[in-house]
Design a protein that fits this description.
402 residues; Rossmann fold; alpha/beta; elongated; 13 helices; 2 domains
Length: 402
């Protein structure tokens, strides 16, 4: 669920494409995130999905006709355009894009595009050959030049049997983009590096040493930084969690990979949030062949310490850079976090007791204690990781120089 959409007013336009069925999912996601969603459908859209579907999902009447002033339809088109805090058209057909780019206003949705002063997001969806047509490209360029956010399209198989770019981006991505469009932008102009996930330290071609991290907390942090307008790089260990929209993602596997990618980028960053669960130890030698069970001598696997990335960053931290560390512990939580903060020259430590239920690895929730440089230890309640990320960045904003 996207943080930052609660009580926000979103105008969703649906045009006539097969991807209109995805807009039902998008409506549901926005409503579940607490947004107030108003739907506008073109005549062609109604050939694919009934307005009743969207009315049920949004809890609001659906507008379809430019000249329908019936009270049940709610706002007139001028009022509706002024009501919106953000407008998104998904799917956006080639026909709609041509109207929006050239100012044609011959139905309710195209007229609203001339009325809305809030940020606008369009999500193209059409046949691959239509999308590749020069006219569509020119229309999208015009819209981008006016400040419209263009999401997608994705590439893949299409209902017509073709394959290529033209699929509407997924509703989860659109919801993330809307949260960013509506975000506070208090990190605009800042460069942020976030690490997430575990590392894997190879033992042989089959086995590796790792930990229970899924990367969910770090991905939530990267998403929150992007929502606030930051330019975000996510260095992500091996995980099945999808990285956020609008974030540069660098995939790594081992602690050595993580060290190389992080240290190369660190000097240019305004803020670094080191959430990844980097392995403390790695096999001194990777076996060239699989170790056989019958002949295995596990005591013969010598381990060596990995490089301490966080300590190195703290020692080399340039003036003005903010460095945030995480401490996953099972006992002595606050003392261990304070020790890490002091030893590694950190500006904030986010500590959690991973032995508690619903906290830490492989959970949707987390409960953390924020340990500050002057001794303050601030305990937050158990909450979804997206909300933990919001709270962390609220504290980080107080640390960043003007």
């Amino acid at each position: 669920m996207s943080v930052g959409l609660k009580n926000r007013r979103v105008l969703l336009g649906v045009t006539g494409g097969i991807a209109a069925y995805k807009s039902a999912d998008l409506t549901s996601r926005l409503a579940q995130a607490g947004a107030e969603v108003r739907l506008v459908m073109t005549a062609a859209a109604r050939a694919f999905v009934s307005p009743l579907t969207f009315q049920a999902l949004s809890g609001q009447p659906v507008s379809t006709d430019l000249f329908d002033e019936a009270p049940a339809r709610g706002m007139g088109h001028i009022e509706l355009g002024q009501w919106a805090e953000a407008a998104v058209v998904a799917p956006a057909t080639a026909n709609f894009l041509a109207k929006a780019a050239t100012g044609i206003a011959d139905d309710l949705l195209s007229t609203l595009m001339l009325v809305v002063t809030a940020p606008v997001v369009v999500c193209p969806a059409m046949n691959v050959n239509m999308y590749r047509h020069a006219t569509v490209g020119e229309n999208l360029s015009r819209l981008r030049a006016r400040g419209v956010t263009v999401l997608g399209p994705d590439e893949g198989p299409m209902a017509c049997g073709d394959f290529g770019p033209g699929r509407m981006v997924e509703p989860a991505v659109i919801a993330e983009a809307l949260a960013a469009v509506l975000g506070p932008a208090d990190l605009a102009g800042r460069k942020i590096l976030v690490t997430a996930g575990p590392t894997r330290e190879a033992v042989d071609p089959v086995r590796f040493l790792s930990n229970r991290s899924t990367g969910r907390m770090g991905v939530a942090l990267a998403r929150e930084a992007r929502r606030r307008g930051g330019t975000v790089t996510l260095v992500l260990g091996p995980t099945e969690i999808e990285p956020p929209w609008g974030v540069e993602t660098v995939r790594v596997v081992s602690a050595t990979d993580m060290h190389r990618q992080v240290t190369a980028r660190a000097p240019d960053m305004d803020l670094i949030v080191m959430n990844a669960a980097v392995a403390d130890y790695t096999p001194a030698r990777v076996r060239e062949q699989k170790i056989k069970k019958a002949t295995a001598n596990l005591s013969g696997i010598d381990l060596t310490s990995t490089l301490d990335i966080l300590a190195e960053l703290g020692a080399r931290k340039p003036p003005g850079q903010i460095l945030v560390g995480f401490a996953a512990e099972t006992e002595k939580l606050v003392p261990e976090a304070r020790s890490k903060l002091e030893r590694k020259n950190l500006d904030l430590v986010v500590a959690n007791n991973v032995a508690l239920p619903g906290v830490g690895f492989a959970t949707e929730t987390n409960q953390v204690i924020l340990v500050h440089p002057h001794g303050e230890a601030e305990k937050l309640p158990l909450m979804p990781k997206a909300e933990v990320a919001l709270e962390v960045f609220d504290r980080v904003m107080r640390l960043l120089p003007d």
